[in-house]
C-alpha cells in the first residue's frame, strides 16, 4: 500500500516537472526533538561569561597542563586492566594506578597534592567495565557515566598500529545544551591544548541522543576533499548518569544533574545532553 | 537440611537443629540467647510458667562485657542441665563475634548493590544501537576534519590547491608565465634541497609527496610562487595518483612510522 502511494507521488512529481513541490524531508528523531530551552547559542554572553569563570578556566587559559590518573574499582579483572592500559595510551600524560581498597575520599587529597588535574575511575561489574567516574580535581565537577559497549583494540577491525605518543586532536560533536556544553568542556580538558598535527590522531566524542560515543582514529588527507580515517584505539559509549558540583562525594555532594528515570525518560524525543 | 539432621524453624531454638534435646517446644525447661539491636538477652522458660504463654519466656539483659555476660549466664542458669548451659554460652560467643564483625564492616566502605532493571537495560541497549546508526560517526568525523582543513587550523602542513585559489592562480599564471618560469627554476633548487620533491622519482614517490610536505613544511614560508609550482607538479602527479589510488591507502599507514628515520639519510643524499 505504501509502495503504491509512493509510486503515485513520484508520478505526480514527474508530471509536474519544474513546478513540483520540494522533496519531503523524512522525519527523524533528531528533527522531531523536543526543543530544549537550555540549548547553547554560540553567541550567548551568559554562557561565555560562565565559561570564563568556571573550573575549566585555568585549563582553557593554558595555565595548567592536564595530568590524569586512571584507576579502577577494587580487584579489577583482566579486561578492565587492559582497557585501562589502552586508555592511558590514548590520553597523553595519564597514569594508571591500582587501587587496593583505598577509599576514594582519601585518594582525592593525595591526587591534589601530587598535582593531578583529573581523576578517572572505571567501575567494573562481572568482569567488564561498566561505569566511569570522571572528576576534575582541584575541586571540579564530577561526572558519573554508565559505560557500555567497550571494545578493546584487538576487537576492532582495523589494520593500524597502536596510538603513538603524539597529542591527538579532539572533536566534540553535538553537545548542544548547557549541560552538554559543560560535559564537553570536561572532556576537552583531559587533553593537552596543543595537538600535534604530525601525529594525525584524533579523539572524537560524539553525542547522539544522550549517548556519547568515543572513538580514536588516525586520519589522512588523500586529497583536498577526501579524508580517510582508520580506527585505532579503544571505543566505548557513555551515558551520563549524574553531574556533581564538587569532587566525588556520594552522600554530601551537591548534584547539578541526576538522571531521574521516571521524569526524564518519558518522551522518546526528549534529550538532555 | 543436612544429611542427618533437620533445621529447626523455631526462633527460640538454641542450636538450630531439630532434636529432642534442643527443641523449645519439647522441653519445658529451656533457655536461649537472642540479640536485639546489638544487645544480647538470655531467655528462659520454666515449667512453672507453662500455663501462661504470655509470661512464658523470661528475658534478662546481659552486660556488654564478654566475661561478665558469661558469669551472668552462669548465675542465671545455675542448677540447669549442663547441656543447655554449654550451648547457651557457645551461642552467646558466636553472636558477639558476628556483632563485632558487623561493626568493623560498617566502618569500611561498603559496596552498594544497585539492581539493574532488565527492561530498562534492554531499552537502553536498543536505543544506543539506534543512536549509533543515526550518528554515522565516520561521516561526521570526516566532515569535521575537512572543515578544519578548510578553516586552516592545520596551518600549512597540507597543501592542497583549493578551487577558488586555483582559479585565481590560473589567471595569474596566464599573466605572468614567464616570470613564474624563471622563479620555478630557483624554487626547484630550493625544493630539492629542502624536501625530496624529486620529479624524476614521481612514479614511486608520488605517495611520499604529501608525507614530505608534512614533515618539512614548518620551515617553509608559503609564497604564491611556490604554491603555483607545487600546484603544477601536483597536477602533473595527479595523473599518476589515480593508478596508485587503492594501493595508496595501505602504504601510508604502515610507512608513516619509518618516515622520520629515513628522512635524514635521504636529505644528506640530496645535498
UniProtKB/TrEMBL annotation, chain A:
Residues 1-11 have a biased composition (Basic residues). GO terms for molecular function: rRNA primary transcript binding. The lineage of its organism: Eukaryota, Metazoa, Chordata, Craniata, Vertebrata. The gene is Rpf1. SUPFAM superfamilies: Class II aaRS ABD-related. May be required for ribosome biogenesis. Residues 66-249 form the Brix domain. Its main location: nucleus. Keywords: Ribosome biogenesis, rRNA processing. InterPro entries: Brix, IMP4/RPF1. Residues 1-27 are annotated as: Disordered. This is Ribosome production factor 1. The keyword Chaperone does not apply. It is found in: Nucleus, Nucleolus. GO terms for cellular component: nucleolus; preribosome, large subunit precursor. One of its GO terms (biological process) is maturation of 5.8S rRNA.
Automatic annotation (TrEMBL), chain B:
Gene3D superfamilies: 3.30.390.110. Pfam families: Mak16, Ribosomal_L28e. Keywords: Nucleus. It is found in: Nucleus. Residues 233-251 have a biased composition (Basic residues). Residues 168-271 are annotated as: Disordered. Residues 174-191, 199-210, 217-227 have a biased composition (Acidic residues). PANTHER family: MAINTENANCE OF KILLER 16 MAK16 PROTEIN-RELATED, PROTEIN MAK16 HOMOLOG. This is MAK16 protein. It comes from Aramus guarauna.
Amino acid at each position: 500500500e505504501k509502495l503504491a502511494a509512493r509510486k503515485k507521488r513520484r508520478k505526480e512529481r514527474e508530471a509536474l516537472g519544474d513546478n513540483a513541490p520540494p522533496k519531503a524531508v523524512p522525519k527523524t528523531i533528531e528533527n522531531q526533538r523536543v526543543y530544549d530551552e537550555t540549548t547553547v547559542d554560540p553567541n550567548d554572553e551568559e554562557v561565555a561569561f560562565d565559561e570564563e569563570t568556571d573550573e575549566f578556566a585555568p585549563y582553557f587559559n593554558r595555565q595548567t597542563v592536564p595530568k590524569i590518573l586512571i584507576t579502577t574499582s577494587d580487584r579489577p579483572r583482566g579486561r578492565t586492566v587492559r582497557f585501562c592500559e589502552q586508555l592511558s595510551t590514548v590520553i597523553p600524560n595519564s597514569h594508571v594506578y591500582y587501587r587496593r581498597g583505598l577509599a576514594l575520599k582519601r585518594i582525592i587529597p593525595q591526587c591534589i597534592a601530587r598535582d593531578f588535574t583529573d581523576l578517572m575511575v572505571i567501575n567494573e561489574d562481572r568482569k567488564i567495565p561498566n561505569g566511569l567516574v570522571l572528576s576534575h580535581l582541584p575541586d571540579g565537577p564530577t561526572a558519573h557515566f554508565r559505560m557500555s559497549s567497550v571494545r578493546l583494540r584487538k576487537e576492532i577491525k582495523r589494520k593500524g598500529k597502536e596510538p603513538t605518543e603524539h597529542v591527538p586532536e579532539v572533536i566534540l560533536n553535538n553537545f548542544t545544551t548547557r549541560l552538554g556544553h559543560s560535559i564537553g568542556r570536561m572532556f576537552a580538558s583531559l587533553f593537552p591544548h596543543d595537538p600535534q598535527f604530525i601525529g594525525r590522531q584524533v579523539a572524537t566524542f560524539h553525542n547522539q541522543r544522550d549517548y556519547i560515543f568515543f572513538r580514536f582514529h588516525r586520519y589522512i588527507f588523500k586529497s583536498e576533499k577526501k579524508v580517510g580515517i582508520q580506527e585505532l584505539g579503544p571505543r566505548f559509549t557513555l551515558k551520563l548518569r549524574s553531574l556533581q558540583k564538587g569532587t566525588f562525594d556520594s552522600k554530601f555532594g551537591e548534584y547539578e544533574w541526576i538522571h531521574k528515570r521516571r521524569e526524564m525518560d518519558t518522551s522518546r524525543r526528549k534529550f538532555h545532553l | 537440611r543436612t544429611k542427618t539432621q533437620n533445621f529447626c524453624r523455631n526462633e527460640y531454638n538454641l542450636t538450630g537443629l531439630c532434636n529432642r534435646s534442643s527443641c523449645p517446644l519439647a522441653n519445658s525447661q529451656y533457655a536461649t540467647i537472642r540479640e536485639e539491636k546489638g544487645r544480647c538477652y538470655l531467655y528462659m522458660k520454666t515449667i512453672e510458667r507453662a500455663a501462661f504463654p504470655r509470661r512464658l519466656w523470661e528475658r534478662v539483659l546481659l552486660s556488654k562485657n564478654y566475661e561478665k555476660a558469661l558469669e551472668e549466664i552462669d548465675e542465671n542458669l545455675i542448677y540447669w542441665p549442663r547441656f543447655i548451659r554449654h550451648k547457651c554460652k557457645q551461642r552467646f560467643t558466636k553472636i558477639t563475634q558476628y556483632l563485632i564483625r558487623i561493626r568493623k564492616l560498617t566502618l569500611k566502605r561498603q559496596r552498594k548493590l544497585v539492581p539493574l532493571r532488565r527492561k530498562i537495560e534492554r531499552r537502553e541497549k536498543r536505543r544506543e544501537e539506534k543512536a549509533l546508526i543515526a550518528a554515522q560517526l565516520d561521516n561526521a568525523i570526516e566532515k569535521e576534519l575537512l572543515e578544519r582543513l578548510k578553516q586552516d587550523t592545520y596551518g600549512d602542513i597540507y597543501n592542497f590547491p583549493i578551487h577558488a585559489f586555483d582559479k585565481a592562480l590560473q589567471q595569474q599564471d596566464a599573466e605572468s608565465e614567464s616570470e613564474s618560469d624563471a622563479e620555478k627554476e630557483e624554487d626547484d633548487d630550493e625544493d630539492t634541497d629542502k624536501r625530496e620533491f624529486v620529479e624524476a622519482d614521481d612514479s614511486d614517490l608520488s605517495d611520499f609527496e604529501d608525507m614530505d610536505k608534512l614533515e618539512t613544511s614548518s620551515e617553509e614560508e608559503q609564497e604564491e610562487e611556490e604554491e603555483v609550482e607545487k600546484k603544477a607538479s601536483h597536477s602533473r602527479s595527479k595523473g599518476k595518483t589515480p593508478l596508485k589510488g587503492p594501493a595508496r591507502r595501505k602504504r601510508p599507514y604502515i610507512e608513516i612510522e619509518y618516515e622520520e628515520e629515513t628522512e635524514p639519510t635521504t636529505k644528506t643524499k640530496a645535498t
